[in-house]
Specification:
Number of strands: 7
Distance between the termini: 18 Å
CATH superfamily: Gcn5-related N-acetyltransferase (GNAT)
CATH architecture: 3-Layer(aba) Sandwich
CATH topology: Aminopeptidase
Structural class: alpha+beta
Strand content: 25-35%
Shape: globular
Oligomer: single chain
Largest sheet: 7 strands, mixed
Number of domains: 1
Strand order of the largest sheet: 1-2-3-4-5-7-6
Order of helices and strands: EHEEEHEHEE
Number of helices: 3
């Protein structure tokens, strides 16, 4: 059984998962991605940070969203420990449902093109490529995505 719940992004388990994510990203892209994430961004109204746990209580994944633009939230810090099939999809589906419940009409996110596993994951989850936004505009290494939330957001 898997549970996904809101947690403090500064808890020991949250920090451990994000350190693992940073190491994985650094190996793939050369950057941990930490410069694009501030824990305070997911501690505001309209934001979420979640941790996925096995029945044993072991933390095996995390993800977050923060307010981005009118009616749009931005996905951040998506990670699932290797060897635990389906965790990333479950975390993303949970975040989509939470965002929709909070009134968001869409989600956006950025990943690196070299991170082909992430690109394929988001495409499989019906995220569409969009022009790079914000600080990613003009960055040929970045890939930005968008998904409208609705009846098939899960």
């Amino acid at each position: 059984m898997l549970t996904i719940s809101n947690e403090d992004p500064c808890s020991a388990d949250s920090q451990a998962l994000m350190r693992e994510l940073g190491a994985v990203l650094r190996a793939i892209t050369g950057s941990s991605g930490n410069a694009s994430f501030d824990v305070n961004d997911v501690r505001v109204n309209g934001a979420r940070f979640v941790v996925a746990r096995l029945a044993s209580g072991e933390a095996v994944g995390c993800g977050a969203f923060r307010p981005f633009a009118d009616g749009v939230a931005e996905i951040k810090r998506m990670y699932a420990r290797p060897g635990h099939s389906g965790i990333g999809g479950a975390v993303l589906a949970h975040l989509e449902k939470e965002a929709a419940a909070l009134g968001y009409a869409a989600l956006c996110l950025e990943t690196r093109l070299v991170n082909q596993r992430a690109v394929a994951f988001y495409e499989a989850k019906q995220y569409q490529r969009i022009p790079n936004y914000g600080k990613y505009a003009g960055n040929a290494l970045a890939a930005c995505f968008h998904k409208h939330l609705g009846t098939n957001s899960a």
